[in-house]
Amino acid sequence: MRVTDTFLAFPELVAAVVIAGVLGSGTASLIFALSVVGWMRYARVARGIGLSLQTRGYVVQAGLAGLSPLYIARWHYLPSLMPSLIVVWTGMFARAILGISTLGFLGFGVQPPMPEWGTMLLDARIHMRSTPLQMVWPGLAVVVCVLSINLVGDALRDALSKKEIK
Q1: pLDDT at residue 140, rounded to an integer
Q2: How is residue 59 annotated by DSSP?
Q3: From 30, 65, 127, 152, which residue has the greatest number of CB atoms within 10 Å?
Q4: CATH number at residue 11
């Protein structure tokens, strides 16, 4: 967890810009940069929930009953972890869309002729005074997409948390 804390000390977007700048622009470097800066949240959530489940009665009793750690992980830890990890995943998916758009706007993202919202915003920037709608539509697409993903994540959390073992 010390490595995770070290990675969390750096702003994600700044680290992604540095990594994408070193690797060059392109889809592969963009995916790699966002993956390197995005894994820490999963580790923190999984560790926190795992530590809280460790002292629960049913987990302790399963260990005392001689059940294998793999069985305990599958039937006791995983059902409690999944709702939270799904919410983290949807949140990170939305953050990845924002990161891709930001890196594209800064010129580190996917290069033309591949369409990407950040690159569209960058190209429309010079026409902002004459045709401002060129900037509105890609920006609105990012907002709607990120908002939709967050709402789906909240609905999934609510649906899955009802199945969680208390």
Answers
A1: 95
A2: H
A3: 30
A4: 1.10.3720.10
